[in-house]
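Annex B. Sample input.
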Amino acid sequence: MGDMVGTPTVIVDADVLDRNIATMADAMATKGIDLRPHAKTHKIVEIARKQIDAGAVGLSVATIGEAEVFADAGIDDLFIAYALWLTRSSAARLAALAERVDISFGIDSAEAAVTAARLLGDAVSRVEVVIEVDSGHHRTGVLVDDVVGVAKAAADAGLRVSGVFTFPGHSYGPDAQVSAATQEATTLRDAADLLADAGFRVDVRSGGSTPSALLSDADALTEARPGVYVFGDAQQWELGRIAPDDIALTVLATVVSRHDGPANRRIVLDSGSKILGSDRPGWTTGFARLRDHPDARVTALSEHHATVEFPKRATLPALGSRIRVVPNHVCPVLNLVDDVAVARGGLVVGRWTVAARGRNN
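Annex B, continued. Sample output.
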């Protein structure tokens, strides 16, 4: 990338990014499933516009703040894929959004529905709610048998219920994608059937995670919300869901220390947890991976250092070498930097602002 780029810095390969966006858009179109990508991964307006131009029906976001950023950028169909608990101030912001874009948000309790309706006041008719159901990740979401009770409470309070959604987050694990996709489909189908039997119109059956998106059941899902697919990361690499050549985001780092003893073969990079994040699921093989040294492992992270160990016969990179690091989990990385360098053909051609950075509420 050249010495003009300081390290550590986040670099997005726009050629690979464009290919990833097109691949997922084509896959979902072939299945007949709407694509509503999760923008919490990238938080970048330019990438959101690429996704919409490729056929996405709208965006998923995690917070009202993210929704505000993308609404300001002209994206007019937004789903806050989160079980919100509204306050007076957040309800006012949601009502303001509903004046200019199509907006929906998640709920997973009757209490949240009643509170939301009360605080939204006259704006209650301008938003839709989608009920979150638990398909096996066991985070937020109601059990299938409880979905009708939540829907009735929401409707009685004046909210429009448009359907159900789930997050198959348990797809993030070795050999877990097929079972997670199967549970997702069963849960959405059963919840939607119960709502329909109770007299509700179910327009939305929303699911999808990057590891399981290509396994989505078109008979059960109307839309999918993968996010990480635009960039890829070391988790997706180690799960076998993405090839190294399809990783669009790396952190460019410099070798600042080198130790080549017989029992101490390591380098240290200037990219620590303050740019790579610190996620390390138990099944991963390190704190990150090196794009061009697949046999090396990042064995330790501190704030500004990454310790990388190499096999016995591997040649260690020289001091001052530039190394492309693949973060374990790409989503937190974008919340750690103000902008990213954009490369095409191996050359940095510009920068994109991470517009929704820090919009965590």
